Amino acid sequence: MKDSALRKAEAIAQKAASERQKVADRQKASERQKAALRKTAADLLAQKAVDLVIGYGRSSGGDVVPLFVSRVEEAQALEWNQHCTYNLVCYLTDPEVVGSLERKEKSKAGKAETRAKDADKAGNARPAAGKVAIVVKGCDLKSLVVLQSENQVQRERLTVIALTCPGVADETGRLLAKCEGCPPDVYNPRGELCDLVVGEPVQRPGGESTGKQSGGPLSDPENQDSTYCDVEEIDVLNPAERRELWDGYFARCLRCYACRNVCPLCYCKECVFDQHDPRWVSPAAAVASNRSFHLIRAYHLAGRCVDCGECERACPVGIPLRRINRKAARVVEESFHFRAGLDPEAKSPLVAFANEDPQEFIE
Protein backbone atom coordinates (compact mmCIF):
# COMPACT_ATOMS: atom_id res chain seq x y z
CA MET A 1 0.00 0.00 0.00
CA LYS A 2 2.77 2.40 0.93
CA ASP A 3 4.64 1.65 -2.33
CA SER A 4 1.48 2.25 -4.36
CA ALA A 5 0.79 5.55 -2.60
CA LEU A 6 4.40 6.58 -3.07
CA ARG A 7 4.31 5.82 -6.79
CA LYS A 8 1.09 7.77 -7.11
CA ALA A 9 2.56 10.75 -5.28
CA GLU A 10 5.68 10.62 -7.48
CA ALA A 11 3.53 10.54 -10.61
CA ILE A 12 1.55 13.57 -9.43
CA ALA A 13 4.76 15.42 -8.60
CA GLN A 14 6.27 14.59 -12.02
CA LYS A 15 3.14 15.80 -13.78
CA ALA A 16 3.16 19.05 -11.79
CA ALA A 17 6.85 19.56 -12.58
CA SER A 18 6.17 18.91 -16.26
CA GLU A 19 3.37 21.49 -16.28
CA ARG A 20 5.60 24.05 -14.55
CA GLN A 21 8.29 23.44 -17.16
CA LYS A 22 5.79 23.92 -19.98
CA VAL A 23 4.67 27.23 -18.46
CA ALA A 24 8.29 28.34 -18.08
CA ASP A 25 9.05 27.36 -21.68
CA ARG A 26 6.01 29.29 -22.93
CA GLN A 27 7.06 32.35 -20.97
CA LYS A 28 10.58 32.21 -22.42
CA ALA A 29 9.19 31.81 -25.94
CA SER A 30 6.87 34.77 -25.32
CA GLU A 31 9.80 36.93 -24.18
CA ARG A 32 11.80 36.00 -27.29
CA GLN A 33 8.80 36.79 -29.45
CA LYS A 34 8.31 40.16 -27.75
CA ALA A 35 11.98 41.05 -28.28
CA ALA A 36 11.71 40.08 -31.97
CA LEU A 37 8.54 42.15 -32.33
CA ARG A 38 10.19 45.23 -30.81
CA LYS A 39 13.21 44.87 -33.09
CA THR A 40 10.98 44.43 -36.15
CA ALA A 41 8.98 47.56 -35.32
CA ALA A 42 12.10 49.61 -34.56
CA ASP A 43 13.71 48.52 -37.84
CA LEU A 44 10.63 49.46 -39.87
CA LEU A 45 10.53 52.92 -38.30
CA ALA A 46 14.29 53.45 -38.57
CA GLN A 47 14.22 52.50 -42.24
CA LYS A 48 11.26 54.86 -42.74
CA ALA A 49 9.29 51.98 -44.21
CA VAL A 50 6.28 53.01 -42.09
CA ASP A 51 5.07 56.10 -40.24
CA LEU A 52 3.16 54.25 -37.55
CA VAL A 53 3.11 50.86 -35.84
CA ILE A 54 -0.16 49.76 -34.24
CA GLY A 55 0.47 47.17 -31.55
CA TYR A 56 0.00 46.35 -27.87
CA GLY A 57 1.42 48.19 -24.89
CA ARG A 58 0.73 48.68 -21.20
CA SER A 59 -1.27 51.35 -19.45
CA SER A 60 -0.02 53.13 -16.33
CA GLY A 61 -2.00 50.55 -14.37
CA GLY A 62 -0.30 47.63 -16.09
CA ASP A 63 -3.21 46.56 -18.29
CA VAL A 64 -2.63 45.61 -21.93
CA VAL A 65 -3.93 48.36 -24.22
CA PRO A 66 -3.57 49.35 -27.90
CA LEU A 67 -0.35 51.27 -28.54
CA PHE A 68 0.52 53.62 -31.40
CA VAL A 69 4.26 53.87 -32.04
CA SER A 70 5.70 56.52 -34.33
CA ARG A 71 9.31 56.80 -33.07
CA VAL A 72 12.06 54.21 -32.98
CA GLU A 73 12.62 54.49 -29.23
CA GLU A 74 8.92 53.92 -28.56
CA ALA A 75 9.12 50.43 -30.07
CA GLN A 76 10.56 49.15 -26.77
CA ALA A 77 7.14 49.75 -25.19
CA LEU A 78 5.47 47.14 -27.40
CA GLU A 79 4.09 44.13 -25.53
CA TRP A 80 3.08 40.59 -26.35
CA ASN A 81 1.54 38.15 -23.87
CA GLN A 82 -1.57 36.08 -23.31
CA HIS A 83 -3.63 39.16 -22.46
CA CYS A 84 -3.21 40.81 -25.89
CA THR A 85 -6.84 40.09 -26.73
CA TYR A 86 -7.76 43.19 -28.75
CA ASN A 87 -8.30 42.95 -32.49
CA LEU A 88 -6.33 46.01 -33.61
CA VAL A 89 -7.62 45.81 -37.19
CA CYS A 90 -10.55 48.04 -36.20
CA TYR A 91 -8.13 50.99 -36.09
CA LEU A 92 -7.41 50.71 -39.82
CA THR A 93 -10.85 52.17 -40.57
CA ASP A 94 -11.04 54.41 -37.51
CA PRO A 95 -11.69 58.01 -38.70
CA GLU A 96 -9.27 59.48 -36.13
CA VAL A 97 -6.40 57.19 -37.08
CA VAL A 98 -7.03 57.46 -40.82
CA GLY A 99 -7.52 61.22 -40.56
CA SER A 100 -4.30 61.64 -38.59
CA LEU A 101 -2.33 59.75 -41.22
CA GLU A 102 -3.93 61.73 -44.03
CA ARG A 103 -3.08 65.01 -42.31
CA LYS A 104 0.46 63.81 -41.76
CA GLU A 105 0.75 62.86 -45.41
CA LYS A 106 -0.55 66.24 -46.56
CA SER A 107 1.87 68.06 -44.27
CA LYS A 108 4.70 66.19 -45.93
CA ALA A 109 3.54 66.98 -49.45
CA GLY A 110 5.24 70.37 -49.75
CA LYS A 111 8.67 68.98 -48.88
CA ALA A 112 8.24 65.43 -50.16
CA GLU A 113 10.04 65.88 -53.45
CA THR A 114 12.98 67.65 -51.83
CA ARG A 115 13.32 64.93 -49.20
CA ALA A 116 13.06 62.23 -51.84
CA LYS A 117 15.83 63.81 -53.89
CA ASP A 118 18.02 64.20 -50.82
CA ALA A 119 17.38 60.56 -49.90
CA ASP A 120 18.31 59.43 -53.41
CA LYS A 121 21.52 61.43 -53.34
CA ALA A 122 22.48 59.99 -49.96
CA GLY A 123 21.51 56.47 -50.99
CA ASN A 124 18.90 56.24 -48.24
CA ALA A 125 15.38 54.83 -48.34
CA ARG A 126 12.67 57.28 -49.31
CA PRO A 127 10.36 58.17 -46.40
CA ALA A 128 6.96 56.45 -46.30
CA ALA A 129 3.80 58.45 -46.94
CA GLY A 130 1.16 57.49 -44.43
CA LYS A 131 2.20 53.84 -44.26
CA VAL A 132 1.19 51.71 -41.28
CA ALA A 133 2.48 48.49 -39.73
CA ILE A 134 -0.08 46.57 -37.74
CA VAL A 135 0.41 43.70 -35.29
CA VAL A 136 -2.13 40.91 -35.71
CA LYS A 137 -2.92 37.47 -34.38
CA GLY A 138 -4.09 34.85 -36.86
CA CYS A 139 -7.77 35.44 -36.02
CA ASP A 140 -7.30 39.19 -36.46
CA LEU A 141 -5.60 38.61 -39.81
CA LYS A 142 -8.81 37.08 -41.15
CA SER A 143 -10.75 40.27 -40.45
CA LEU A 144 -8.07 42.24 -42.29
CA VAL A 145 -8.53 39.93 -45.28
CA VAL A 146 -12.27 40.72 -45.28
CA LEU A 147 -11.55 44.46 -45.20
CA GLN A 148 -9.17 43.97 -48.10
CA SER A 149 -11.80 42.06 -50.09
CA GLU A 150 -14.25 44.92 -49.46
CA ASN A 151 -11.74 47.57 -50.60
CA GLN A 152 -11.64 49.23 -47.18
CA VAL A 153 -7.85 49.21 -46.81
CA GLN A 154 -5.00 49.97 -49.19
CA ARG A 155 -2.92 46.84 -48.79
CA GLU A 156 0.12 48.39 -50.45
CA ARG A 157 0.28 50.93 -47.61
CA LEU A 158 0.19 48.27 -44.91
CA THR A 159 2.92 46.15 -43.38
CA VAL A 160 1.22 43.25 -41.63
CA ILE A 161 3.17 41.71 -38.74
CA ALA A 162 1.52 38.41 -37.82
CA LEU A 163 2.32 36.75 -34.50
CA THR A 164 2.21 33.04 -33.83
CA CYS A 165 -0.21 32.67 -30.96
CA PRO A 166 -0.72 29.93 -28.34
CA GLY A 167 -4.06 31.51 -27.42
CA VAL A 168 -5.13 34.54 -25.42
CA ALA A 169 -6.74 34.57 -21.99
CA ASP A 170 -9.10 36.64 -19.88
CA GLU A 171 -8.05 38.51 -16.75
CA THR A 172 -8.19 35.28 -14.73
CA GLY A 173 -5.77 33.54 -17.07
CA ARG A 174 -8.42 31.26 -18.58
CA LEU A 175 -8.09 30.60 -22.30
CA LEU A 176 -10.80 32.40 -24.28
CA ALA A 177 -13.49 30.16 -25.75
CA LYS A 178 -12.66 31.24 -29.30
CA CYS A 179 -9.11 29.89 -28.85
CA GLU A 180 -10.14 26.42 -27.75
CA GLY A 181 -11.10 25.31 -31.27
CA CYS A 182 -8.58 27.46 -33.12
CA PRO A 183 -7.18 25.63 -36.19
CA PRO A 184 -3.40 25.36 -36.78
CA ASP A 185 -3.45 27.68 -39.79
CA VAL A 186 -4.73 30.46 -37.55
CA TYR A 187 -2.44 30.16 -34.54
CA ASN A 188 0.48 29.64 -36.94
CA PRO A 189 -0.34 32.29 -39.59
CA ARG A 190 0.69 31.59 -43.15
CA GLY A 191 3.04 34.03 -44.80
CA GLU A 192 1.15 34.77 -48.02
CA LEU A 193 -1.45 36.86 -46.20
CA CYS A 194 1.01 38.94 -44.20
CA ASP A 195 4.40 40.54 -44.68
CA LEU A 196 6.19 39.22 -41.61
CA VAL A 197 5.60 36.32 -39.23
CA VAL A 198 7.14 36.84 -35.79
CA GLY A 199 7.47 33.99 -33.31
CA GLU A 200 8.30 30.32 -33.13
CA PRO A 201 5.74 27.81 -34.47
CA VAL A 202 3.19 26.99 -31.81
CA GLN A 203 2.59 23.38 -30.79
CA ARG A 204 -0.95 22.74 -29.62
CA PRO A 205 -3.10 19.62 -29.16
CA GLY A 206 -4.67 18.50 -32.42
CA GLY A 207 -1.61 18.05 -34.58
CA GLU A 208 0.31 20.08 -37.09
CA SER A 209 -1.06 22.42 -39.71
CA THR A 210 -2.68 20.57 -42.60
CA GLY A 211 -1.65 23.21 -45.09
CA LYS A 212 -5.33 23.94 -45.67
CA GLN A 213 -6.58 27.37 -44.77
CA SER A 214 -9.60 28.16 -42.70
CA GLY A 215 -11.43 30.62 -44.92
CA GLY A 216 -12.51 31.37 -48.46
CA PRO A 217 -14.45 29.06 -50.77
CA LEU A 218 -14.57 25.42 -49.75
CA SER A 219 -13.83 23.14 -52.68
CA ASP A 220 -15.02 20.12 -50.68
CA PRO A 221 -18.53 20.47 -49.17
CA GLU A 222 -17.63 17.77 -46.65
CA ASN A 223 -14.64 19.82 -45.44
CA GLN A 224 -16.73 21.86 -43.02
CA ASP A 225 -16.03 22.90 -39.49
CA SER A 226 -17.56 20.52 -36.99
CA THR A 227 -17.04 22.81 -34.01
CA TYR A 228 -20.53 24.31 -33.93
CA CYS A 229 -21.54 22.57 -30.71
CA ASP A 230 -22.60 25.85 -29.13
CA VAL A 231 -24.90 26.55 -32.07
CA GLU A 232 -26.31 23.02 -32.08
CA GLU A 233 -27.30 23.36 -28.42
CA ILE A 234 -29.70 26.12 -29.47
CA ASP A 235 -30.77 24.58 -32.79
CA VAL A 236 -32.36 21.64 -30.99
CA LEU A 237 -34.80 23.99 -29.25
CA ASN A 238 -38.16 24.69 -30.84
CA PRO A 239 -38.83 28.25 -32.11
CA ALA A 240 -40.71 29.31 -28.98
CA GLU A 241 -37.90 28.09 -26.73
CA ARG A 242 -35.29 29.83 -28.83
CA ARG A 243 -37.26 33.06 -28.74
CA GLU A 244 -37.54 32.87 -24.98
CA LEU A 245 -33.83 32.12 -24.61
CA TRP A 246 -32.64 34.97 -26.80
CA ASP A 247 -35.15 37.49 -25.48
CA GLY A 248 -33.76 36.71 -22.04
CA TYR A 249 -30.30 37.67 -23.31
CA PHE A 250 -31.57 40.70 -25.24
CA ALA A 251 -33.34 41.99 -22.13
CA ARG A 252 -29.88 42.52 -20.59
CA CYS A 253 -28.64 44.70 -23.46
CA LEU A 254 -27.85 48.30 -22.49
CA ARG A 255 -27.50 49.48 -26.11
CA CYS A 256 -24.02 50.75 -25.28
CA TYR A 257 -22.92 49.66 -28.78
CA ALA A 258 -19.65 48.27 -27.46
CA CYS A 259 -20.10 45.21 -29.72
CA ARG A 260 -20.51 47.41 -32.78
CA ASN A 261 -17.73 49.83 -31.90
CA VAL A 262 -15.13 47.12 -31.33
CA CYS A 263 -16.02 45.14 -34.47
CA PRO A 264 -13.43 45.58 -37.26
CA LEU A 265 -16.14 44.97 -39.88
CA CYS A 266 -18.56 47.64 -38.63
CA TYR A 267 -17.02 50.55 -40.46
CA CYS A 268 -20.00 52.45 -41.93
CA LYS A 269 -19.58 56.21 -41.57
CA GLU A 270 -23.22 56.45 -40.51
CA CYS A 271 -24.67 53.35 -38.89
CA VAL A 272 -28.32 52.54 -39.54
CA PHE A 273 -28.86 52.52 -35.77
CA ASP A 274 -27.68 56.14 -35.52
CA GLN A 275 -30.01 57.45 -38.22
CA HIS A 276 -32.83 59.68 -37.06
CA ASP A 277 -34.62 60.49 -40.31
CA PRO A 278 -35.93 57.93 -40.84
CA ARG A 279 -35.37 56.15 -37.56
CA TRP A 280 -35.22 52.46 -38.34
CA VAL A 281 -34.79 51.11 -34.82
CA SER A 282 -35.67 52.74 -31.52
CA PRO A 283 -32.60 53.59 -29.41
CA ALA A 284 -34.47 52.52 -26.27
CA ALA A 285 -32.99 49.57 -24.38
CA ALA A 286 -36.11 47.42 -24.63
CA VAL A 287 -36.41 43.77 -25.64
CA ALA A 288 -38.10 44.44 -29.00
CA SER A 289 -35.65 47.12 -30.16
CA ASN A 290 -32.69 45.19 -28.74
CA ARG A 291 -33.80 42.13 -30.69
CA SER A 292 -33.93 44.20 -33.89
CA PHE A 293 -30.49 45.66 -33.21
CA HIS A 294 -28.74 42.33 -32.68
CA LEU A 295 -30.47 40.48 -35.52
CA ILE A 296 -29.87 43.27 -38.03
CA ARG A 297 -26.21 43.32 -36.99
CA ALA A 298 -26.04 39.56 -37.46
CA TYR A 299 -27.47 39.86 -40.98
CA HIS A 300 -24.94 42.57 -41.82
CA LEU A 301 -22.11 40.30 -40.66
CA ALA A 302 -23.37 37.09 -42.28
CA GLY A 303 -20.73 35.79 -44.67
CA ARG A 304 -18.27 38.35 -43.30
CA CYS A 305 -17.75 37.61 -39.60
CA VAL A 306 -14.52 35.73 -38.90
CA ASP A 307 -15.31 34.92 -35.24
CA CYS A 308 -12.60 37.10 -33.73
CA GLY A 309 -14.79 37.23 -30.62
CA GLU A 310 -14.36 40.94 -29.89
CA CYS A 311 -18.10 41.63 -29.69
CA GLU A 312 -18.63 39.03 -26.98
CA ARG A 313 -15.49 40.07 -25.10
CA ALA A 314 -16.57 43.72 -25.06
CA CYS A 315 -20.17 43.07 -24.00
CA PRO A 316 -20.55 44.33 -20.40
CA VAL A 317 -23.58 42.14 -19.67
CA GLY A 318 -22.32 38.81 -21.03
CA ILE A 319 -24.57 38.26 -24.05
CA PRO A 320 -23.19 35.27 -26.05
CA LEU A 321 -22.97 37.23 -29.29
CA ARG A 322 -20.60 34.77 -30.94
CA ARG A 323 -23.40 32.23 -31.05
CA ILE A 324 -25.55 34.53 -33.19
CA ASN A 325 -22.75 35.23 -35.64
CA ARG A 326 -21.60 31.61 -35.70
CA LYS A 327 -25.15 30.51 -36.52
CA ALA A 328 -25.15 32.83 -39.53
CA ALA A 329 -21.66 31.64 -40.50
CA ARG A 330 -22.80 28.04 -40.37
CA VAL A 331 -25.78 28.73 -42.63
CA VAL A 332 -23.53 30.49 -45.15
CA GLU A 333 -21.04 27.63 -44.98
CA GLU A 334 -23.67 24.96 -45.52
CA SER A 335 -25.48 26.88 -48.28
CA PHE A 336 -22.52 28.27 -50.21
CA HIS A 337 -19.49 26.28 -48.96
CA PHE A 338 -17.81 29.53 -48.00
CA ARG A 339 -15.94 30.78 -44.95
CA ALA A 340 -14.99 34.39 -44.49
CA GLY A 341 -11.50 35.65 -43.84
CA LEU A 342 -8.98 33.97 -46.06
CA ASP A 343 -9.00 34.91 -49.70
CA PRO A 344 -8.78 38.69 -50.30
CA GLU A 345 -10.22 38.12 -53.77
CA ALA A 346 -13.25 36.16 -52.55
CA LYS A 347 -16.46 38.09 -52.03
CA SER A 348 -19.08 37.09 -49.51
CA PRO A 349 -21.79 35.07 -51.28
CA LEU A 350 -24.37 37.49 -49.89
CA VAL A 351 -22.88 40.39 -51.88
CA ALA A 352 -21.94 38.45 -55.02
CA PHE A 353 -23.86 36.42 -57.58
CA ALA A 354 -22.86 33.21 -59.31
CA ASN A 355 -24.91 31.07 -61.70
CA GLU A 356 -24.17 28.00 -59.61
CA ASP A 357 -25.57 29.52 -56.41
CA PRO A 358 -28.32 27.41 -54.77
CA GLN A 359 -31.77 28.64 -55.86
CA GLU A 360 -34.11 26.25 -54.12
CA PHE A 361 -35.73 29.16 -52.29
CA ILE A 362 -37.20 30.39 -55.60
CA GLU A 363 -39.40 27.30 -55.97
Description:
The protein is an alpha/beta fold. It folds into 2 domains: 197 residues, no CATH class; 147 residues, no CATH class. It contains 11 helices and 7 strands. A 5-stranded mixed β-sheet has the order 2-1-3-4-5. A hairpin with a 5-residue loop joins strand 1 and strand 2.
Strand count, sense and barrel status of the largest sheet are:
5 strands, mixed
Shape: globular
Query: What percent of residues adopt helix (DSSP H or I)?
Result: 40-55%
Number of domains: 2
Structural class by helix and strand composition:
alpha/beta
Distance between the termini: 74 Å
How are helices and strands ordered from N to C?
HEEHEHEHHEEHHHHHHE
- pLDDT under 50 segments (min length 5)? 123-128, 206-225
- The main sheet orders its strands as 2-1-3-4-5
Count every beta strand, where a strand is a DSSP E run of 2 or more residues: 7
Q: Strand content of the residues, in percent?
A: 5-15%
Mean pLDDT: 83
Radius of gyration: 23 Å
Number of helices: 11
Give a nutshell description of this structure.
With 363 residues, the chain is an alpha/beta fold. It has helices at residues 2-46, 95-122, 138-149, 177-180, 184-187, 229-235, 239-250, 258-262, 287-301, 310-314, 321-336; strands spanning 52-58, 64-69, 132-136, 158-163, 196-198, 216-217, 338-339. The protein has a five-stranded mixed β-sheet with strand order 2-1-3-4-5.
